[in-house]
Specification:
Layout (H helix, E strand, L loop, with lengths): L8 H10 L5 H12 L2 E5 L6 H15 L11 E4 L3 H10 L1 H13 L9 E4 L5 H9 L4 E4 L1 H8 L12 E4 L9 H16 L5 E6 L5 H9 L4 E5 L5 E3 L22
Parallel strand pairs: 1-6, 1-7, 2-4, 2-5, 3-4, 5-6
Antiparallel strand pairs: 7-8
């Protein structure tokens, strides 16, 4: 089956007009993501991992019925780097605008998702606005997610159904990772239903440990650039690695 077939026609047409074909991570990742599986994607920089993670969620947010205001926030993106968070917000503009343009030209009803960034640099006025008017997509860091969960804004997070964790390898073996794991479980306990978790990295090793970190008490589908999709069982434990490995990665393509 064509990996683009589950998407809305406007999404398919935008992708086909923008790219020659889905990359391997996209073609292998989308079926697992569309099933609702928690999914770990291991692929090189520039192979389209971020779009693999986001496109199905954008499809749902843009073309599914829009919930009432308190249930608007549905996609959570977590980055260990503030600079990467800003890059992702900027790079989401092209698919959102392109899909909206195609849908509008056909007279199709769509919703233009609002995006909010919450980091240590976010002004207080923007933080207050998010609580009053929740965005569809929230981009944040592990530390800011913790602060959100300890503030009144945590009520806005109940409607999140997708969590995307980028550069997951930089978090798994660290104290920040253990802290994030606790935040994810606290968030899941608050959500109306367990959110789907999607992890991304070019250097995650060993896959089994990263999958356990991502899935918590559940299992994750693992998409490797070198292999087919396969299932890894997960347990209630957090991975330990060989040190804190971080890098300031610039996005190639989404």
């Amino acid at each position: 089956m064509d990996s683009l077939s589950p998407f809305h026609p406007a999404v398919r047409d935008w992708f086909s007009s923008s790219f020659e074909a889905p990359t391997r991570p996209q073609a292998q990742g989308w079926p697992a993501i569309a099933r609702g599986d928690s999914t770990l994607i291991l692929a090189p920089t520039g192979s389209g991992k971020t779009l693999a993670a986001f496109l199905w969620s954008l499809d749902r947010v843009m073309f599914a019925p829009v919930p009432e205001k308190r249930g608007r926030c549905r996609i959570l993106y977590v980055s260990p780097l503030k600079a990467l968070a800003v890059d992702v917000e900027r790079n989401l503009r092209a698919p959102l605008a392109g899909i909206a343009h195609i849908a509008a030209s056909r007279g199709e009803v769509y919703h233009a998702p609002a995006i909010a960034i919450r980091t240590g640099d976010t002004p207080q006025s923007e933080r207050a606005k998010f609580q009053r008017e929740p965005a569809d997509i929230l981009i944040t860091t592990p530390e800011s997610l913790y602060l959100l969960l300890t503030s009144n804004a945590r009520e806005v997070l109940r409607s999140i159904d997708t969590i995307i964790i980028d550069e997951i390898h930089a978090l798994v073996p660290t104290k920040r990772g253990a802290h994030l794991a606790l935040s994810l479980e606290r968030l899941e306990a608050r959500c109306e239903r367990p959110p789907q978790r999607i992890g991304l990295s070019a250097t995650q090793r060993p896959l089994e440990e990263v999958a356990r970190f991502l899935g918590g008490a559940r299992q994750s589908s693992v998409v490797s650039h070198q292999s087919s999709v396969h299932q890894l069982p997960t347990v209630d434990c957090f991975g330990a690695g060989d040190g804190d490995r971080t890098r300031d990665q610039q996005l190639g393509r989404l």
